[in-house]
Specification:
50% of the residues are buried. Helix 5 links the parallel strand 14 and strand 15. This protein has 456 residues and is of the alpha/beta class. It contains six helices and 22 strands. The two termini are 32 Å apart.
């Protein structure tokens, strides 16, 4: 019961998260300006499209996954037992409901049954439904609904995003994810440890883990309800790996191959996993890779190239909200965990941690969204006077991995306004009109186990 009580603490006020500003200015027109107004909600969508044919989980065991959408395109991946399939894409139109936008017949999967393609020619800020069918049309995958990014010149609206991490076997049914699809989100973020493939060596081993996870009904529900943006952590390759420890070059190559073929994503600079995903005028997502370039001896959690790219790209972004996805916490956890396992998070790479936090100091609307440590909530990365003291970190998940029970015994602290020891995912609403982020954590029974609002 103690955990449940603390789950609803929301400690920091909005004002506490805002940088100090001068107040001794002379009166002017700005003093009488109208207060900001909340942005409007997204336009309603038609009732879900029901495709012909029967859903066949043997023919289409993973469903259909769509990721990294732009205004006009998105990446699609699937795996099928069919020798040939057809793709049907439906677009939502305000007056007529769902209308066929594209059809592709004669799609042939590769030798491993995999399909990867880019959907192009799409319209901005539009709901789409897509499915794959057997050649005779009798069998099909679950229908996947997703939205494209709003146009860069579009008027602002509220954005609704989901996020989680750590989908391990302590709660293998991942029940909390069963409540994602009904939200019809703009995007869903996977922050690492999507599979626990420790001990795998070759592609077939890794692929079996993705098959198992992606076949779970609750996970298929996430895929069916939204486009996704994903980054990995250690368990997609091997526990606590970095080059020089716990992984060989061949093992890494096989794991990377299967990760990229399974979760739809675009390549970043020079083919990197790190990349930016722009979603309309008000949101840009910066996806950081804190594993592939890690050097514990240097010490560096990422290459100098990635760090410089991240700082420059975030500073250059004109989006109202800049979400920084990093699989491991950026918070200095000295008050909570001391230096325990610090090398497995940003705290163990203090020079780069401070460089990133200082590099984006003063940039409006920056929020870190992280996973890995098996608890959920909201925390402030640094003590007062240290870069990061005015930032917000949202910890999303775990959806199924062993709960970190230590947080249940931690007393409320100004840097830890919300700690949740429960399986859950984060429902994040961004309001560019008033510059507010509102996060709710949804538990295994669909109830809110914690919530927090902050002005940015």
């Amino acid at each position: 019961m103690r955990v449940q009580r603390r789950a609803f603490l929301s400690g920091l006020t909005a004002a506490a998260l805002l940088p100090a500003c001068a107040t001794d200015k002379a009166p002017g027109d700005s003093d009488t300006a109208a207060p900001p107004e909340a942005a409007p909600d997204r336009a309603p969508e038609p009732t879900p499209w029901v495709a012909d044919g029967t859903v066949d989980l043997t023919a289409f065991p993973r469903g259909v996954w769509v990721g990294d959408p732009t205004e006009t395109s998105a990446i699609l991946t699937s795996r099928t037992a069919e020798a040939e399939v057809s793709l049907v894409l439906m677009a939502a139109e305000a007056d007529t409901g769902w209308v066929e936008a594209q059809r592709q017949d004669g799609l042939v999967p590769d030798a491993d049954g995999l399909i990867r393609l880019e959907l192009t020619g799409l319209s901005a800020d539009t709901a789409y439904s897509v499915t794959l069918l057997s050649a005779d049309g009798a069998r099909r995958a679950e229908v996947t609904r997703f939205r494209t990014a709003p146009a860069s010149t579009a008027a602002s609206r509220k954005l609704r995003i989901g996020a989680t991490s750590c989908m391990g076997g302590s709660s293998p049914d991942l029940l909390n994810l069963g409540f994602v699809r009904q939200e019809a989100l703009d995007l869903f973020l996977f922050l690492g440890d999507f599979v626990y493939a420790d001990g795998s060596k070759v592609a077939a081993d890794y692929r079996a883990y993705y098959d198992r996870t992606m076949a779970r009904p609750t996970v298929q529900g996430v895929a069916a309800g939204s486009a996704v943006v994903a980054i990995w952590d250690d368990h997609e390759v091997n526990n606590n790996w970095y080059f020089g420890q716990n992984v060989t070059e061949d093992q890494y190559a096989e794991a990377l191959r299967v990760y990229r073929e399974s979760l739809p994503q675009r390549e970043g600079p020079s083919g990197a996993l790190w990349r930016a995903v722009r979603f309309g005028p008000d949101l840009e997502i910066f996806v950081l890779d804190c594993r592939s370039e890690r050097d514990a001896d240097a010490p560096k959690i990422m290459s100098d190239e990635q760090l410089a790219w991240a700082i420059d790209a975030i500073k250059a972004s004109d989006a109202r909200f800049k979400l920084i996805l990093t699989s491991v916490h950026i918070t200095d956890h000295s008050p909570l965990f001391g230096s325990l396992e610090a090398k497995d998070r940003w705290q163990g790479y203090e020079a780069q941690r401070l460089a990133l936090l200082d590099g984006v100091s003063g940039v409006e609307g920056v929020v870190f969204i992280t996973g890995d440590m098996h608890y959920a909530g909201v925390q402030i990365p640094s003590d007062a006077g240290v870069p990061g003291a005015d930032r917000l970190e949202i910890m999303a998940g775990p959806s199924g991995s062993r709960i970190n029970e230590l947080v249940a015994f931690f007393e409320p602290h100004e840097r830890y306004p919300l700690l949740i020891a429960a399986w859950c995912w984060a429902l994040i609403e961004l309001d560019p009109g008033v510059g507010e982020v509102y996060v709710r954590f949804i538990g295994d029974d669909g109830a809110i186990v914690g919530e927090h609002r902050a002005a940015l």
